[in-house]
Each structure stands twice: as C-alpha cells, then as structure tokens.
C-alpha cells in the first residue's frame, strides 16, 4: 500500500485558479501562494445565498484512529460525483500534532487535500501570524509595566504562545530582576487570538475583538484590556493576511477552504466563520468538521460557533470505525481480530454521540463507518443494527482506499437527511449562571451526574457574577479520550462527576473556558515524537505521515 505522501505526490493537481473558477471565484479575487495555494480576498457575503451545511464529527478518539478528516474529504469528493457543487471548510494543521503524536491533518489515502506537505507545515503563514500577534501583545504589556505602568496593572492573565508542543514552557518565570512573575505558554491553537480569528466576521470585527481581550487587572481590581495599551491595531496589522481564507483542493479537485486551527479539547475546535460562510456562499453544499468527538468539537460547534455566527448545519455525520469501537470496548491489541464482545461494549460510546446530535441538538445524522481492509462484514452489520435501533442509518465508507467513489453511499445518505427540516437547539441557555451552563453540558452531553467546582473556579465564577461576561457561552477544556474528564474511562462511563479547576475569561473571543480534569493548555511531545522519524533529502520529505 502506498503511503499518503506518495499518493499525494503522484496526483496531478490543477492550478488553484482553475479550482477557484469552478466555484465562480475569479483570478482577481485570489492572492496566489505558488501554483496550488491561494488566499481569497474578502467580500461582503452576509446577505448572499447560502448553501447547505454538513457537519462531520465522530466518536471519542482512540489510539486506533477514526479518520474524521479523511471522511470529510472523501464525502466532499463523493458529493461532487453525485453532481453537487460542493466545497470543504476545514481547519489548518498545527505543528504541535504534526511533530508530536498525531501527525499531519490533511486526510489520508485517496481522500486528501493538497499540497499536503505545505498544508501540514508552514502553509500560508497563518499560524505564525497568530503567534506573532499574541506575543506582540505580551511584549507590549511588559513594556507598559517597564515604563512606569501608568494603568497600574497589578496582575497579568495574558500568556505567550507557540505552535509546537513544549512541556518545559508550561511553567516559566519572566520579567526583569526587579519585576518578575510566574507565567506559562499556551500552544497557539489554544490561544485567544486563534479563537478570535476563527470567530471574527471581518477585519473590523477582528480589531474590536482583539481590543476586548482582557490582559489582567489593575490595583483597583478593574479589568485591563488590550485596547487600553493600544495594542489591537498593531495586532490586526499582523493578522491582515491571516484573516483571509486559504483555498486548496482535494486530490479529486474539490475546492477546500482551510482556515484557522483551534483544538477541540482545549479550544473551540472549529475552522473560521469566514471560511465556512465563504464556502456556503460559493457552493451548494459545504462540508465542515469539528475536532475530536461530538462531546467536544460538535458541542462547541453548536453552542459557540453557531450561536455567535448564526450558522446552522442541515445534516451531521458521526464517524466511527470498527477498530476504534473495539478499542473503546476494552480491546487494546490485535484490533484486526474479530471480537464481538469488545465491539458491543464500545458501541455505547457511538450511541451516546448519536443521542447528543439527535436529542440534545435536534439535528438529523448518519453514521459513517470508516472501513478498514480487515473489517468483517459481520462486524459492520453489528454496528449498523445497533444504529438502526435508534432510527439512524449507518453507511460503510471506503474513502481512504477508493476516494470519492468509496463515499458515494454516504453522500446519498447525507443528501437525503439534509432535506429534513430541523431547528437547532442548544445544550444550555446564555441567561443561566455559569455553573448551570457547565452542569447542563456535563449532564446532557457527557452523561455526568454533576460537576464539582474547585476553589479557584468558584472564585473566578464569583468575580463574573453581575457582569456582562456571565452571559457568555462556555468552552469546556477536557480530555478528548473520554466522555468524562478522565482519559482512562473509555466507552460510555456512568456515575462520574466533572471536576472544574478554573475558569478563564476570553472576552475578545466571546466565551468562557472551563478547565476540567487534568487537561493542560500546552501539550508535550511523546516518548518518540513524529519529529524523530522525519527525513528530508533533495527536498523530498518522508515520515510526515
């Protein structure tokens, strides 16, 4: 079997102008980054036509893999084969996973976006611009304090960031000898600047959101914002190109808007609003995805992205694999072997995510069984039968090995359910208390019995009471490997509580971050990171996948 990078390198790509032209985007609306990548010049699309929106989500991830991005890309290719005018709206890969454990994030097999090496590495520089804007603000804060601190800043809550996993930066000491403080770095994907870029409607909105970033408190206990030190205009200048959506293509020539890259476990996990709306404007169907399982990415897609943007999906795809379900059911080795007992123990995790989509958020869904060559027909039938009990169709998808042709049955199912009328419901009401919003997510979406708030979280919530920020949506940061906040509890755990350690105000992005369990905002590299396996010879890269 050929590797992903070999398949990508053997595929003849179309010039990006032709890909854009297939959507009706003229050359003058593009800023080219070589032959196969471009940025699209922003235009007012608020009152323009809207295509249908399809969200791809998944079960909780396991070491066996689920292939959500592969299915998203394969589904788009299949919709094209079904005669639909389709576009993708995906996130940009972060260098953290690329050089860490997960590897690249451009799909796999014959369902990839390209040029995959560029997309997985520096792409058009968006990640670096976000990092630079974030750290410019940090520099301006410390510079303000150095030159007399006229705003009387007492505490600084703003963190520096970088786009590579580095556990040594989780705890740092910064400053000059007479004025030092403990601090830490976050990974760029979890930074508030990333969230702002992904939720802003245009450059003016971006500037306003940047200005509203809370950087700390003054001696009177009042919040100090980025605009108080005149940082937001300079930050916006660094982001003036990054805010423009990138356009690339699938191996089968489907346009893909790849823009923004927040993680779904420690951030809101969705690509940019601008890219999604652009894809919906030019295409009749837009396929997008939300990170990790439906308890994280999809919940935040609905409760944060849709709420703040007015978007609403017409259909949802929940991705699962037989291997991953057996893994969730307790089988850790030899996942290619048949084990109906483990499979049946793991399926409740899939069932919970289906129930969330249908019952909590009131959206029609279909299950995509991402087929591996070793999957048995009898195993696939077990998954289909269990889904059928909920009135949900499960469709076998072979996008990895067959590209769009392997996703045509899934495409037909998506076209069908997208015609159903549905009205999005949210997991909580904005007018509720912070505690109630977090509890609603924990009980309705995770299946928890309740929430335990530690002292630091209680103090943060108390400071929010009576302010405008108390009414913001909530973004829960927790492990992606479990419905709970304990990565060990796989499948569909029962009788567990969610423990919230702290609450972070993200006033510019427009939400609160509730830090649950032992999750950290700066990941570390694994014992043998992908970076050790990579090689480059005469500009040919190996080991990227």
**Helical content class:** 25-40%
CATH class of the largest domain: Alpha Beta
Q: Mean pLDDT score, rounded? A: 92
Q: What is the strand content?
A: 15-25%
Rg over C-alpha atoms, rounded to the nearest angstrom: 22 Å
Structural category: alpha/beta
What CATH calls the topology of the largest domain is Rossmann fold
Number of strands: 25
Shape: globular
Number of domains: 3
- Spell out the CATH superfamily of the largest domain: P-loop containing nucleotide triphosphate hydrolases
| Spatial separation of the terminal alpha carbons | 13 Å
In the predicted model, the low-confidence regions spanning at least 5 consecutive residues are none
> Do you know the CATH architecture of the largest domain?
3-Layer(aba) Sandwich
Biggest sheet descriptor: 12 strands, mixed
- Count of helix runs: 18
Topology:
Blueprint: H1 4-10, H2 16-21, E1 30-32, E2 38-40, E3 52-58, H3 68-81, E4 86-90, H4 95-99, E5 107-108, E6 111-114, H5 116-120, H6 126-146, E7 153-156, E8 160-162, E9 172-176, E10 179-183, E11 185-187, H7 192-199, H8 203-211, E12 214-218, E13 223-225, H9 232-238, E14 246-250, E15 255-258, H10 273-282, E16 285-289, H11 294-309, E17 315-320, H12 322-328, H13 340-360, E18 365-370, H14 377-388, E19 394-397, H15 399-402, H16 408-417, H17 434-446, E20 450-453, H18 455-464, E21 474-477, E22 497-506, E23 511-516, E24 535-537, E25 540-542
Parallel strand pairs: 3-16, 3-17, 4-15, 4-16, 8-11, 17-18, 18-19, 20-22, 21-23
Antiparallel strand pairs: 1-2, 2-14, 5-6, 6-14, 7-12, 9-10, 12-13, 14-15, 22-23, 24-25
Helix pairs in contact: 3-16, 6-7, 6-9, 8-9, 12-13, 13-14
């Amino acid at each position: 079997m050929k590797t992903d990078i070999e398949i990508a390198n053997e595929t003849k790509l179309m010039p990006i102008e032709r890909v854009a032209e297939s959507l009706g985007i003229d050359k003058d609306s593009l800023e080219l980054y070589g032959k196969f990548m471009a940025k699209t010049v922003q235009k007012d699309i608020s009152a323009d036509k809207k295509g249908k929106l399809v969200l791809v989500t998944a079960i909780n991830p396991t070491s066996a893999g689920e292939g959500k991005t592969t299915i998203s890309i394969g589904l788009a290719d299949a919709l094209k084969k079904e005669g639909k005018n389709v576009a993708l709206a995906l996130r940009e890969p972060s260098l953290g996973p690329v050089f860490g454990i997960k590897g690249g994030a451009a799909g796999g097999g014959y369902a990839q976006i390209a040029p995959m090496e560029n997309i997985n590495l520096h792409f058009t520089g968006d990640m670096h611009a976000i990092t630079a804007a974030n750290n410019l603000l940090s520099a301006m804060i410390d510079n303000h304090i150095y030159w007399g601190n006229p705003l009387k800043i007492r505490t600084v809550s703003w963190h520096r960031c970088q786009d590579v996993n580095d556990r040594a930066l989780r705890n740092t000491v910064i400053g000059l000898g007479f004025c030092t403080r403990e601090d830490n770095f976050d990974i760029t994907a979890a930074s508030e600047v990333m969230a702002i870029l992904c939720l802003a409607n245009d450059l003016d909105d971006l500037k306003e959101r940047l200005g509203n970033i809370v950087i700390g408190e003054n001696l009177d206990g009042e919040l100090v914002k980025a605009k108080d030190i005149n940082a937001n205009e300079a930050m916006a200048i660094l982001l003036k190109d990054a805010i423009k959506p990138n356009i690339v293509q699938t191996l089968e020539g489907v346009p893909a808007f790849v823009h923004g890259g927040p993680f779904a476990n420690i951030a809101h996990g969705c690509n940019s609003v601008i890219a999604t709306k652009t894809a919906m404007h030019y295409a009749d169907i837009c396929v997008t995805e939300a990170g990790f399982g439906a308890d994280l990415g999809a919940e935040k897609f609905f409760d944060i992205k849709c709420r703040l943007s007015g978007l609403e999906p017409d259909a949802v795809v929940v991705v699962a694999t037989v291997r991953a379900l057996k893994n969730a059911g307790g089988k850790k080795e030899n996942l290619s072997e048949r084990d109906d007992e483990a499979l049946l123990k793991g399926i409740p995790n899939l069932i919970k995510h289906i129930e969330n989509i249908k019952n909590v958020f009131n959206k029609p869904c279909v299950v995509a069984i991402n087929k591996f060559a070793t999957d048995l027909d009898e195993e696939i039938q077990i998954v289909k039968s269990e889904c059928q009990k909920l009135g949900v169709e499960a469709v076998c998808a072979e996008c990895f090995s067959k590209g769009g042709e392997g996703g045509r049955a899934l495409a037909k199912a998506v076209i069908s359910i997208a015609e159903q009328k549905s009205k999005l419901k949210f997991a909580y009401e904005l007018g509720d208390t912070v505690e109630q919003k977090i509890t609603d997510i924990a009980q309705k979406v995770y299946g928890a019995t309740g929430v335990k708030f530690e002292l630091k979280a209680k103090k943060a919530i108390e400071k929010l009471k009576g302010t405008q920020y108390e009414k913001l949506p909530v973004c829960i940061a927790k492990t992606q490997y479990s419905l709970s906040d304990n990565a060990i509890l796989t499948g569909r755990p029962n009788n567990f509580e969610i423990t919230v350690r702290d609450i972070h105000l993200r006033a510019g992005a427009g939400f609160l971050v509730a830090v649950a369990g032992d999750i950290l905002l700066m990941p570390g590299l694994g014992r043998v990171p992908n970076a050790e396996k990579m090689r480059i010879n005469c500009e040919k890269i190996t080991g990227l996948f």
